[in-house]
Amino acid sequence: MASKLNSQLPKPYLTIRDQLIAQYHPLQIEQREHHTFCNFSDTNPVYQIVKEACIELGFIEIDAEAIAQAWQKNNPLIDQFNHLDWPVTPDLFQIKGPNSETSFPTCPKKLGLYVVAPTADWIEKLFIAGVPTVQLRFKSDNHHAIRQEVKKAVEIAKEFPGQLFINDFWELAIEFGAYGVHLGQEDLDTADFNVIKTNGLRLGISTHGVAEMQRADQISPSYIALGAIFPTNLKIMPTAPQGLARLDFYTKLVGSYPLVGIGGVDETNLDAVLKCRVGSVAMVRSVINAPDYRAAISQLQAKIQTTQVDI
Ligand SMILES: Cc1ncc(COP(=O)(O)OP(=O)(O)O)c(N)n1
Ligand SMILES: Cc1ncsc1CCOP(=O)(O)O
């Protein structure tokens, strides 16, 4: 494979690097940044080769470094290098898992169909239609409107057996007593996790790759979300769509955390996503923009019931 990098690797190592790239080409995605050089901080050849191969496969640099570190830990000697030995276990990535004292309250590993909805009225329609897990993702700058919407959604949720997560507004979620909150990476610097936890709320965290999963693990959330799996026009994503081969890898990486897959999932690709052993699949447009949302829910739920493997 022709390299996009100006490699600093010695010639014999380039062969091993290209072997890795050929072996793991299903993990390849089109990268947005064009890497012209690699400034390696670590001189270990295994680390260097793997990092370069991962950059070539389209991993962002912090993820390439995390994978290179895991590989080096598992396979430290270049003269015993086994290019088939891609590391997948959480411990190689220093992912501890949720069983520590600091964990958030647990939620089911299989959350069923998880619909992310724009308003409290939608939350009601979704619960009535039998959706087990919903999220209020209300986007507004009007504090009064936000407060009213969260309050209404939580009041509605109390009438139904399903689970309601509130996106972003964790203080309001606590005040009104929601089942859980969902936070993005940019919320992690400001949210008070102790307050969320001591109030008994579950926590879901968005991730877009390996390094963000490692960061999420430090917080021991109730679930980890990974997106986008496929292209989505609902929001601008910080990383390119990750695809099924990477989803399969991420499912192994998170170990016993429930993994929620999101982004571009619909009836046509749901089977393939479930086969990657995700705990659940979150969707917006496949339900909210469907010509008949009740019919869409029935079809998606039926597919989840028939296809989801034991995890
Ligand atoms: C289940 C699930 N996964 C990811 C997201 C995205 O959340 P976030 O990163 O906070 O981005 P916005 O939704 O605020 O645009 C989500 N909402 N739900
Ligand atoms: C909110 C969000 N976070 C990651 S992808 C995404 C959008 C999912 O929407 P859709 O299911 O319509 O692609």
Automatic annotation (TrEMBL):
Its EC number is 2.5.1.3. Residues 119-287 form the Thiamine phosphate synthase/TenI domain. The keyword Transferase applies. It is an enzyme of class 2 (transferase). Its cofactor is Mg(2+). Keywords: Magnesium, Metal-binding, Thiamine biosynthesis, Transferase. It catalyses: 2-(2-carboxy-4-methylthiazol-5-yl)ethyl phosphate + 4-amino-2-methyl-5-(diphosphooxymethyl)pyrimidine + 2 H(+) = thiamine phosphate + CO2 + diphosphate; 4-methyl-5-(2-phosphooxyethyl)-thiazole + 4-amino-2-methyl-5-(diphosphooxymethyl)pyrimidine + H(+) = thiamine phosphate + diphosphate; 2-[(2R,5Z)-2-carboxy-4-methylthiazol-5(2H)-ylidene]ethyl phosphate + 4-amino-2-methyl-5-(diphosphooxymethyl)pyrimidine + 2 H(+) = thiamine phosphate + CO2 + diphosphate. GO terms for molecular function: metal ion binding; thiamine-phosphate diphosphorylase activity. GO terms for cellular component: cytoplasm. Pathway: Cofactor biosynthesis; thiamine diphosphate biosynthesis; thiamine phosphate from 4-amino-2-methyl-5-diphosphomethylpyrimidine and 4-methyl-5-(2-phosphoethyl)-thiazole: step 1/1. Transmembrane segments: none annotated. InterPro entries: Aldolase_TIM (IPR013785), ThiamineP_synth_sf (IPR036206), ThiamineP_synth_TenI (IPR022998), TMP_synthase (IPR034291). It comes from the Bacteria. The keyword Nucleus does not apply. One of its GO terms (biological process) is thiamine diphosphate biosynthetic process. NCBIfam families: PRK03512.1, thiE. Belongs to the thiamine-phosphate synthase family. This is Thiamine-phosphate synthase. It comes from Polynucleobacter kasalickyi.
